[in-house]
Amino acid sequence: MNNTKKRENSDFVELDESNNIFKSIAYRYVPYWPIFLLTFFLSIVGASIYIHYQSPVYEASASILLKDDKNDDQGTNILESLNISGTKKNVENELVVLKSHSLMRQVVTEMGLYAQIYQKGQVRNVLSYPSYPVNFVALHPENIKSTIAPIPFEYLSAENAVKIGGKKYTLNTPVNTPYGDFVIYKSADSLSSLPANSTKHPFSLQLKSVKASAKQLIGAFSVSANSKQSSIISLKFTDQNPLRAESILNTLINDYSKNGIEDKNTIAARTLTFLEDRLKIVNGELSKVEGDIQQYKSKENIVDVSEEGKIFLTSVQESDLKINEINIQLSVLDQVEKYIVKKGEEPGVVPGTAIITDQLLTQLLLKLYEDDIQLERLRKISGENSPSIIDIKTQIAQLKPSILENIHTIRQNLLASRAQLQANNNRLTSSLKSVPQKERALVQISRDQLIKSGIYSFLLQKREETQLSLAASVSDSRIIDAAESNPNPIQPVASNVYMIAIVLGIFAAVIFVLAREVYNKLILFRSEIENGTSAPIIAEILFDPGEEPIKIKDGNNTVIAEQFRALRTALSYSGIQDDKKVILMTSSISGEGKSFMAINLAIAMTLANKKVALLELDLRKPKFAKMLKINRENGISDYLVGLSTIDEIKKPLPEIPNLFVFTAGAIAPNPTELLLNEKLDLLIKELKKDFDYILIDSPPVSLITDAKLLNVYSDICLYVIRHNYTPKLYLKMIDEIYDNDELNNVNIIFNGIKPRGMFRQGFGQGYGQSYGYGYGYNYAEDTAIKKSNNIFKNIGRRFGK
């Protein structure tokens, strides 16, 4: 039961994580849908232009069957018998041959691909094949050099000539041009296939050397075997013209087959010459031997050789053969013994023992080889001191003495047999000497005749076989499928191009969003504040593009007004009540909106029937007078130096009851020393008696120490961070201030939050908490502001932050 619950909980967690991933992706990128739409449109347009201007590439394919190199036909027996046929063909070798430069150069020369004719098109030059008016055939193709630019020419059909560089060249006759010696032939189908727009789109000639053309064609040619066991070879060629691709493949296959037949015929012809020469030599030797026999018999009056002499001779030959076999076996035994004695722990190949008939030795050597293989396998998975490896080593050590002992026994037996055969051979030789000297000499001459006659008969037979092979030479391959091109181009593939373009467009949009938000050095998200400091966030205030500093009034129900009311409520939960009434407003740097926050928060408090004192203690850069349009004279600095009283510096706002503003007054040369004046303590004490709340607008913390000096009077510090304005590096400073209690009861206000995305009407997905702010869209003033915003201004600002 518990396992079932755990599995259900695990599935729920995985589902929740998956949902969070999708929500995170949607939250980050959906507000920027115009960018994605723009990049999608641009990628489609770019892909269309690319496809339009890109030359299409077609693929032609063919397949041939290579004859099995394990089957020998009658025509190859002679070559193998004489050992002059060379290595047999196999698939791997033929793959290299098919893609060789020599074969491709042969195709280039045969098809005249070193001279290609193009016709000028609206976008690019188009290869004119096979419908070209003339064909340039080089008299010396190997001397053709590549030209950098196409050579324009004009075909003069009425004059049966071609005009190149202002000079006319007659067709069908050798001509000398600045580019080489050619014979310019009229195309067989020039009259029927010549394009009607040849005048508007003239022809040009592109020359390339045979080597350069072959190298270019090899780059577009691929050849492969269907499988390791198969002898079928697949050939593919890519080209801008599908018909030319087919022609090149077919020509290459034909030249490959023709070269194979020529090679076989060359070898057969050389073999036949060799046989004819040998027949002449052997025939002369045989004639001489037969003449010697005739002359000897006539001289010695011999009719036939004694049968006893023949028997003795045959026995001697058999003994010699057996002695040679024993010597070979002894040599093999020596090799095996050396292998066993010198062998270490590494596995090796046991010398061949096929001619030794002793089964026990064969079994022992086989056992030794199997143990070596087993030892090698165990070493790959076990250490040298493992029990299994030690056992195998022990078995090998025990096998070696047995093998050496068996070799010794076999050697002694073979030596005894050889001694007996030699004794028998000596006896037969002595017996042969007893044959009359005349008959023994005749036997020697007859032996030479027999040998020469056998050689002569063998050469005659092989000559006939070679002549048959030469007359019936066929290719070692046959065509399975002739070259055939795909009607659809393989490059560019429209679907792939559009897909890649769309992916690149999306990638560009993602990079734009990441560069705009993730890699921004300024604070954009509430989460960045939460991750950078432990100080709580008490409120979020939206950005309002209006220039009016007062955003909250009685009866005003805009989104920002409601946010200030929410801030007012949140302060009561942060300890601001009863005798705790002093609120310090500060920030990291100038321009984060602390004065704006102080004014509107003070107004929000007055709307709750509270009497509020708003003190401008940023004596260096006072802004209240300008923002509230009140008199700047008689301010706090005047009071601190004794030029004014508290009542004189207190300035009510008629349009906002219960709000009294204490402006900074004249800018003093020593504002920090003024804040240390005891009269400031008196001022705060007097204000606490008469007001429900006291709001102090202090200078930024990172620049000067005034805010920390004023901290002694505050019950809470509202630290203002402005969206897309405050650098992230100040978060560390805020966190240190919070951890070290350098300011009392620090709470952060995230100010000036702008909606995310390109078009900034409404607040659907912003940089603050979650996906929205819960204030809706139906506020009258907010709607009016949206309608007043010009759509073209919003579009113009969509790349701003």
UniProtKB/TrEMBL annotation:
Coiled-coil residues: none
Annotated EC: 2.7.10.2
Transmembrane segments: 32-53, 497-515
Location of the AAA domain: 581-710
Residue ranges of every copy of the Tyrosine-protein kinase G-rich domain listed in the record: 439-517
Single GO term (MF): non-membrane spanning protein tyrosine kinase activity
Record's keyword annotation contains Nucleus: no
Family note: Belongs to the CpsD/CapB family.
Name of the protein: non-specific protein-tyrosine kinase
Organism: Mucilaginibacter frigoritolerans
